[in-house]
Description:
The chain is mainly alpha-helical and 48 residues long. It contains 1 helix and no strands. The relative contact order is 0.08.
Amino acid sequence: WTNLHIGDKVVVKKAQHKMTFLHPIGYSFFGTLRQKMNWNVMPDNQTK
């Protein structure tokens, strides 16, 4: 892992091999985002 700095570039390329990711039953990527980013809380109700 490394830190990105202003001016750094990230290059993403298609790999030769495929990879399958497994998720637990009931896993929701967007549900996790909502929870971690507080997207499920109205701005007026957020604690400061």
